[in-house]
Amino acid sequence: MLTQRDRDRLKVLHELRKEHITQRQAAEQLKLSDRWIRELVERVEEKGDQGVIHNSRGRPSPHKIAAKEEQRAMAIVAREYADFGPTLASEYLGRDHQIRASRETVRQWMIRAGVWKRRRQRIEDVHVWRPRRSCFGELVQWDTSEHDWLEGRGGERVYLIGMLDDATSRGLARFARHDSTAENMRLLWAWVEKHGRFVDGYTDRAGLFQTNRPRQRDEERDGKLAETQIGRALRELGIGWVGALSPQAKGRIERFFETAQDRLVKGMRKAKVCTLERANQYLEEEYLPLWRERFTVRPASEVDAHRPLGKQYDLASILSHVEQRVIGQDYTIRYASRIYPVERKQIRPGLKGQSVRVEARLDGSIVVQGRDGRLAVQVCDGAERSRQEPRPAAARRPVRDKKSGKDGQRRWMHGFDLHGGPSLEELIQQAYGAAGEESERSG
Known about the structure:
Blueprint (H helix, E strand, L loop, with lengths): L3 H14 L5 H8 L3 H14 L19 H14 L5 H11 L6 H11 L25 E8 L12 E7 L5 E6 L4 H15 L4 E4 L13 H6 L6 H9 L2 E4 L7 H20 L5 H19 L20 H4 L2 E6 L5 E4 L2 E4 L13 E6 L5 E5 L2 E3 L48 H19 L1
Helix pairs in contact: 1-2, 2-3, 5-6, 10-11
């Protein structure tokens, strides 16, 4: 029987025989060589329309395994490997029974024999479309994009850190030289100061947001889980955290970056932006207003889910690197290889051994918070390590064994006496002397 592909070939060949088209045109239409076109024309002239059918069509393949071999294999499978899968069954048939067949061949045999049932095809909803949140500030997606934003201009590599509201797609972003905790905290500070405290943050499970380190002593004492600096800051701000299991789960921020990698990069190219400062200026003055105008949507609810930032929230204190330290017996605190003494006017009873909160703030200052408030500290000048040149190592003297005499012989048995009898040294000398005389006589 002619297939549709054969009929299409016949139409072109008939046009060629009528000289309506050339051989080269026929070859281009059928995507064949000129030589094969001439061969097909000769076959059609000899056999008619059947000339386009391949001569081996309908014939069994010379590599087909014989039916008797298939029957023997299925008898072995039904007897010994009835609960095996095709892969394992094909391995055992080849190893123990010398029946060489591929996994797919064995699977087809097992299906025809009724040993293996064809699995039902299932459509798995891996990434189901998720509707937007209804309120502005209910969920904020947060991520960083590593891209050649400046296209090599200025020789500086920058990262784009962005936050995007799930309900409205309103975004806030900034360029930074590093995807660090401090830079992410600066962006969080800008969002909270501008809009308020959102309900939940939606990020990936990178080390900036999630940690697998063991709990510290104070965390075990207070029953807290191990958390990163950003996780602690979100907790102190009353903001929840949701970790995405895949990049597709936070698709809105991913599409925000995808659009920026096209529009923002081209815009900065035309504006000849070469520095980080100029990139942030262009981002704030040109691109983000364009994004708010073109790509944001109206939320389902007009309610703003952001919560106000009260006076009890000190952003400078919360958005900092926080560690716990203990005041020593000399009223000092050791932090980052430096010594910070407490000012004399603040020294009072009960201060020794007190646990304090040390904050390395984004502006570079160090603040120490005690139980009764802030403690005034300053860097101790004596804490700096001296940068003197190291002294050359002295030449090593040969070590003399204290148990050896002047002649170099060890004298650990000298004077050893067993209850007034001969010394151990004499006994050994006598024994070895007697053995030496016997060996001389035997020789």
